[in-house]
Design brief:
Layout lengths: L2 H10 L1 H32 L11 E8 L5 H16 L4 E6 L11 E5 L9 E7 L4 H4 L4 E4 L8 E4 L8 E5 H7 L9 E4 L6 E9 L16 E4 L1 E4 L4 E8 L4 H15 L4 E7 H8 L1 H35 L1 H9 L4 H38 L6 H28 L2 H7 L1
Parallel strand pairs: 4-10, 6-11, 7-9
Antiparallel strand pairs: 1-12, 1-13, 2-12, 3-4, 3-8, 5-9, 7-10, 8-9
Length: 410
């Protein structure tokens, strides 16, 4: 079949063809980018935090209504940790200052050299007098865990700092790209007041309390210390035996209330809930984009079907004449499918260019990843198939009408 007659016919009635092509282009550009965003959000929400078997881990915040002085607070924290550790089903417990993905906690700036004007990177700052490597099941990829004599208790009213640190692999790569970090010195802060610490270990990953979707989301450091004396309470993270978490939570709360000589306020939160809360907005956005994408696809399909039906109906007389001159049903069908394929192809080409431009805008403004070509190619194939299917029914019905009836009814 020659393309020139079809192209000439489209140019004579180009308004409808341009509108359909434009609709396909806009739909393809929006659909590809929307699904790319959905994929990114879902991948981000399912990233490993670094904590092994998250379902077995929970935290419990303890606030004592009558805490006493700093030394009394320190004694209370040690006693509470022992009470929790004694509950059947508790595998490990650690006093900690913050929890991954909890959206609240401590940050610190880190630098390779104290003479730097600017920090090398921001870092989520975890500290604990207990082994977080053990309690959270962090995977060491370099060096070792802290030794017992490296843990220190720090009165909040003094200026004593730890001398050792464990950092994540992402932070190590940021500070010393391509070389081992263990044994190197780094600094919390910059300038003369910067605190020098030695890296003794590197863990594969530990997400920050904010869980950013950028590499910053795994810039974390762990210091072997406890700060006491500034708050009448403490936060503990607990690993329970598999399948025993809910029971252990209830028994830990009961044991702490029973062991405390004064009233306490307890709040337990599972790591699963922290993760769910952290990504609640991302998941809501994902579902909204999926809904919009489905509606957009339906609207575009309806537009193509409606326009194809209108064109076929308007050309019933032309179809009848061609049938009277010997054209077969297959010839009529091929004509309309080719015509719709050309219109859809123009829309797909425009959609690919528009989709790339839209993604470039999103990358520059929202720091998104670039749109993989597969999204545009798959979208283009979908719209090509949609164009063929949309015109097939109306064209086949028109081609099935006898030439006499077609020319008389037109």
């Amino acid at each position: 079949m020659e393309i020139r007659p079809i192209l000439s016919a489209l140019l004579r009635n180009k308004t409808g063809a341009i509108l359909v092509a434009l609709q396909v282009a806009l739909s393809l550009a929006i659909l590809a980018n929307a699904l790319h965003i959905v994929s990114e959000r879902r991948q981000a929400s399912s990233r490993p935090s670094g904590v092994a078997d998250e379902h077995a881990v929970f935290s419990i915040s303890v606030r004592n209504l009558s805490a006493g002085g700093p030394e009394q607070m320190l004694a209370t924290q040690k006693r509470e940790a022992e009470v929790i550790r004694a509950v059947p089903g508790v595998v490990s417990v650690a006093n900690v200052n913050q929890i991954p993905l909890s959206q609240s906690g401590w940050n610190n700036s880190v630098a390779v050299d104290r003479k730097q004007v600017d920090e090398t990177a921001p870092s989520s700052f975890y500290f604990s007098p207990d082994s977080l490597v053990k309690t959270w099941g962090l995977k060491l990829v370099e060096g070792r865990d802290f030794l017992p004599d490296e843990y220190i208790d720090v009165d909040a009213n003094t200026e004593v700092y730890p001398r050792h640190v464990i950092i994540t692999k992402a932070l190590a790569e940021k500070m010393w790209p391509g070389v081992p970090a263990t044994g190197k010195n780094m600094y919390f802060g910059t300038g003369e007041d910067a605190i020098e610490v030695r890296v003794v270990g590197v863990v594969e990953r530990l997400q920050t309390q904010s869980g950013q979707v950028t590499p910053r989301g795994e810039y974390s450091s762990i210091a072997p210390m406890r700060i006491y004396g500034n708050y009448p309470g403490a936060l503990y993270t607990v690993r329970a035996e598999a399948g025993q978490r809910e029971r252990v939570i209830r028994e830990v709360e009961a044991a702490l209330r029973k062991a405390s000589p004064t009233p306490v306020i307890l709040e337990s939160t599972t790591l699963d809930k922290y993760r769910k809360d952290r990504y609640r907005a991302d998941m809501a956005l994902s579902w909204m984009l999926v809904t919009v994408s489905v509606l957009l696809l339906l609207i575009t399909a309806s537009g193509i079907v409606g326009m194809a039906s209108l064109w076929v109906t308007q050309r019933r007389k032309q179809i009848g004449v061609r049938r009277a001159l010997g054209a077969r049903k297959a010839d009529i069908l091929r004509y309309f499918i080719t015509e719709n394929f050309m219109i859809t192809s123009a829309g797909v080409v425009g959609g690919i260019l528009l989709g790339v431009a839209l993604n470039q805008l999103l990358v520059s403004k929202l720091q998104m990843a670039r749109l993989p070509l597969a999204y545009l190619v798959t979208g283009g194939v979908v719209f090509w198939l949609l164009g063929v299917i949309a015109v097939y029914g109306p064209a086949w019905r028109a081609a099935s009408i006898s030439p006499a009836l077609a020319t008389r009814s037109a």
